[in-house]
Write a structure and sequence with these properties.
Length: about 425
């Protein structure tokens, strides 16, 4: 029978898999190659000095800040590093609590722990992003900040979040690692809070393989971020520090971005608009054709005009149907997977059991209250996440690829839902 599922021995919708799911890397071309070669030719891969520094990192930072609409941007070595640098720039550490959404990559929670603070979890809403209405519940007198995470291209409701943060006296860090270029009400994610953090790792919308960026509109936070990412040094050569405040010196890390990374990042940034436009066109071409299928839903997109379009996230009626749908669709050569295995971030054993690499354990309990993580903390996250499957959209997908995805979804839905 024509409609026999590939998982049951039928003919798959596609003979070959979809193109590899790497948006930015898929767009690498002569521009990136030339830029890297320029750095090598100059024999100057270090941003601060060398025989003939091209200033690629500096140029990238300037362009990125302009693009996102913030005063400052600082290149770092990863998205995780960007979170740690932002937390430290904002003065967050032992004794402080930081609210994060229960649905995020482990790095959001990990960075808070590495910074010496305590992650506490807020529930998500139908958008699978942080529920702005749950932030106040999660806050107490130790809470210094909230980290928002626009999940897979879906912007957070920043107007409600900023209002609540102001009411509860919280700093706001935006972890935009997965969603560079997404917007809320016409404004780029990352430009609303006290700091914004981005990743350039290979899965991300623009990529250098590894890399990250911190943005901020606050001169003081920027200056602290620069020092923290560079051994706590005052590099007056950089020109932004005329005086040394001896009362505000501290030990830092080395999270400096190399000129080779900066060279690739600068070229990738020029392609960001094209990448987003292409992904959005493909995603909404698919979504239009599969909406209305009985039993198949979508997460709420907080601002469709600002959706980065990098993932079509489908919601199924329950955990079992999601697993069956996912397996059947993979067999049709439409690759997909559940976000974070369908589990809240606090279910990672190292978070749940409060384990760190040193013998002192989590620094969680220094704030005076014992922190307990348990199932049931964020019921909506626990209920919603097992029902999702994600299809990654690439700017290199053709219309035929998009239509194959539609055919695959319809075929599997007919048999399973
Ligand atoms: C939400 C979120 N935060 C932080 C990170 C960490 O970024 P990186 O892998 O560049 O350290 C990621 C990476 O996947 C992420 O998805």
């Amino acid at each position: 029978m024509e409609d026999k599922l590939a998982i049951n021995g039928g003919k798959p919708v596609r003979e070959i898999p979809l193109p590899p799911p790497y948006a930015g890397a898929g767009m690498y071309g002569e521009e990136e190659k030339k830029a890297v070669l320029e750095v090598l030719d100059r024999k100057s891969p270090f941003r601060y000095y060398g025989p003939d520094v091209a200033g690629k990192v500096k140029a990238f930072e300037k362009s990125f800040a302009q693009k996102i609409g913030t005063r400052h941007a600082l290149g770092v070595t990863s998205g995780t590093a960007s979170l740690v640098v932002a937390l430290k720039a904002l003065g967050i550490g032992p004794g402080d609590k930081v609210i994060i959404p229960a649905n995020t990559f482990i790095a959001t929670a990990g960075a808070v722990v590495i910074a010496g603070a305590v992650p506490v979890f807020a529930d998500i809403d139908e958008s699978l992003n942080i529920d702005p209405g749950d932030i106040e519940r999660a806050a107490d007198k130790h809470t210094k900040a909230v980290i928002t995470v626009p999940i897979l291209g879906n912007p957070c409701e920043m107007d409600r979040i900023m209002k609540t943060a102001e009411k509860c006296n919280l700093l706001v860090i935006e972890d935009v690692a997965q969603s560079c270029g997404c917007k809320y009400k016409g404004r780029y994610a990352g430009s609303f809070g006290d700091a914004g953090c981005f990743s350039l790792q290979i899965n991300k919308i623009i990529t250098t393989g590894e890399g990250g960026i911190v943005v901020t509109g606050n001169d003081r936070f920027y200056e602290r971020a620069v020092r923290y990412h560079d051994h706590g040094m005052f590099r007056e050569k950089e020109g932004f520090l005329a005086t040394r405040d001896e009362d505000d010196i501290f030990v830092g890390q080395n999270y400096r971005m190399s000129e080779i990374t900066g060279a690739v990042a600068l070229e990738q940034l020029k392609k960001l608009d094209y990448i987003i436009d292409s992904m959005r066109r493909i995603k909404y071409r698919i979504k239009e054709q599969v909406k209305g299928i009985h039993g198949l839903g979508f997460r709420k997109i907080n601002d469709e005009a600002g959706d980065a379009g990098n993932v079509l996230l489908i919601m199924l009626p329950d955990k079992d149907s999601a697993a069956r749908f996912s397996n059947a669709l993979n067999a049709e050569n439409i690759s997909n997977s559940p976000l974070y295995g369908g589990r809240p971030v606090y279910m990672h054993p190292q978070i749940f059991n409060q384990k760190t690499a040193d013998k002192n354990g989590f620094s969680l309990n220094r704030s005076g209250d014992k922190t307990v993580y348990e199932m049931g903390m964020c019921p909506h996250t626990e209920e919603q996440l097992p029902k999702n499957i994600c299809i990654t959209i690439c700017p290199t997908f053709s219309e035929k690829d998009a239509d194959d995805i539609v055919r695959g979804i319809r075929k599997v839905a007919r048999q399973i839902l």
